[in-house]
Amino acid sequence: MAVSQNGWPAIGAGTDTRLAPFPWVTGRVLSGPVFTVLEHVARRFNAEVEGITVSSSWGWAYRAIEGSSDLSNHASGTAIDLNAPRHPLGASGTFTGAQVAAIRRILADVSPAVRWGGDYSGRKDEMHFEITTGAATVAAVAARLTGGTPPGSTPAQEDDMIYLRIIDGSGDGRLNKGDVFEVGELTADRLSAQQFEEHLEEDLLGRDGVLVGPDGPGCSGRGGLSPGLRSPNPSPSNPAESSTARATADSTRATSSRSASSPPTGSARSSSRTSGPPSSRA
Prior knowledge:
The protein has four helices and eight strands. It is of the alpha+beta class. The strands form three sheets. The protein has a three-stranded antiparallel sheet with strand order 3-5-4, with helices on one face. Strands 7-6-8 form a three-stranded antiparallel sheet. The protein has a two-stranded antiparallel ribbon with strand order 1-2. It is globular and about 40 Å long. The relative contact order is 0.18.
């Protein structure tokens, strides 16, 4: 069986069901924990480093590394290239010092699962982010990001989850009005704290709306993430809206079983294209 440079099984066709549409690139990535980890990287890159141009950002592509017989990690759906024309292969210093510092913070959050091409000892590839560890480590990092339990460990019989419902948004397809998805307590706590410590006006989950906090209008409940609407089975229809807030997220606790390997929702913006970066890329 062919494997990419990082040892993950190569995928020969972009229509393979192991691949999932990825909202930040014109292509797909491996579903499950790899998707979760790389989506975290791309989402924060878009928010903290520079806005991502989807048409020039790439995912899966079955090809070799330029100048090598090894299959690129793109071939296993475990690598992404972001804003490729701005950060061409072989160039260094394409990011400012502040941007590099932001990238370092993102990498720290997904350590040790992801490597940045700007850290290569040889030819730099600053557009490039790739999975470098095995499946168990990636699953553990994904679980850490989502507050879930990595596969292989013993989960609690019941998991008290938080459901976020977007009740307003720009409609650009990342997180849209009516979207409902799970987050863990750790994620909710970190989002709430960062939202208000940094006085951010945009939703940290997708730059689509305001996550109203403890002092925000219409909010109550733990972490300031709940406008008070609670349900054991959240539904995207007819969410309550606050007249004084541009957008809020409806957080609903429910007792449910949690699968840490499920890819996040709210990625309607994903392109149906399965093509990846041109063969000249790393």
